[in-house]
Amino acid sequence: MSDDETGRNDGGGTGRVTEEERRRRLRARRTAAHRGARRVLARPAFVASLRERLAVLDGAGELYDLDEPADMYGNGVVAALEERVAALLGKEAAAFFPTGTMAQQVALRCWAGRTGSPVVALHGLAHPEVHERDAFSQVSGLRPVRVTSAPRQPTAEEVRDLEEPFGTLMLELPLRDAGYLLPAWEELTGVVAAARERDAVVHFDGARLWETTTHFGRPLDEIAELADSVYVSFYKSLDGFGGAALAGPRALVEEARSWRHRYGGMVFQQFPAALAALAGLERELPRLPSYVAHARVVAEALREGLAAAGVPWARVHPEVPHTHEFQVWLPYDADTVTEAAIRQGEETGTLLFTRPWDSPGPGLALTEVQVGAAGLEWSADDVRAAAAEFTARLGTAAEGS
User: Fold this and answer.
1) Torsion from C-alpha of 188, 190, 192, 196, nearest 10 degrees
2) Residues facing residue 94 across a β-bridge
3) How confident is the model at residue 189 (pLDDT cuts 50, 70, 90)?
4) What distance, in Å, lies between the first and last C-alpha atoms of the chain?
5) How far is CA 135 from the centre of its chain?
6) What is the DSSP-derived secondary structure letter of residue 168?
7) What's the pTM value of the predicted model, to 2 decimals?
8) pLDDT tens-digit profile of 149-163?
9) Any residues with CB less than 8 A from the CB of 198 and at least 6 apart, and which?
């Protein structure tokens, strides 16, 4: 490995580069390897070029009449998208939001006014707790309490026995930071029933709810029926440009529109995001079950391939993926596996692991794997071969780090 890759020389005479600069260079190499790779398991929209992203709107005239006037403050194509989402989720109404963070704060604020309680019971690994800088409490006057922080879905007993009273139970489906985990259907209905026993309403953080139908064996509207309100994202599963929707009772949604305005979400025109969302619902949503099914093939082959290549210990979590995304754990430091993954892409044109690696503990590395349309071209043998190619680079990556 060159000094430039390891960060041992910054070219400016100081002899070292900062850790931030070293990681920036690794990110740049990983992104370049991803864009240049001939074979990947998924090509997420966020790594595409502007030209490639705009291609999402090719054929948009089949989705909506492009001779209609452009939207203004949520009418036109945005309203059409809202109606489509409400119908898919079996709810009375839906409202488009520029971000999921805003949509959920507004939803839970509205429920707090109705229940008389600002307390939101949620998982310690839920998105608002981990990724939103305490927005619930700092911006919306809500008080989150953790049902559990264990890397699994909460149980009915935990909800029923929670010491503090709460007005709303928020469930993230799937629970991304625990490995895109979902409960069994009976477990989910039990948790919802336990919340009802506490006179609480139930809100689904369903950013990736689109992916859950295979695991639950039920259509979206039947899943969403369990909750009083549901938030869904248009880019996390559907490759849209961004945006989200809040669906629920018409009175709640109308109030949410007022708070959306107060929060700064009354955007003048949103037709690019709305059209991209309609494209995702039309094109990607029907394909998600095939991605989930193939993710299970990939997960099993990956586990077999790593074992056959001599990796002393590896874990795919969950062992049978609940969605088309899952975690991989390896007994190496994150820098070593990052370098091996990038080199595989640079040297072979096949990039098995495209996402960053984290260190959840000493000598451990963790990443996420997504299987999308590109991954459907991989056979189990392809995955096993790629695992062997990756493993072969672990030794040299460790020597050069």
Assistant:
1) 180
2) 247
3) very high
4) 8
5) 19
6) E
7) 0.92
8) 999 999 999 999 999
9) 159, 160, 162, 165, 166, 169
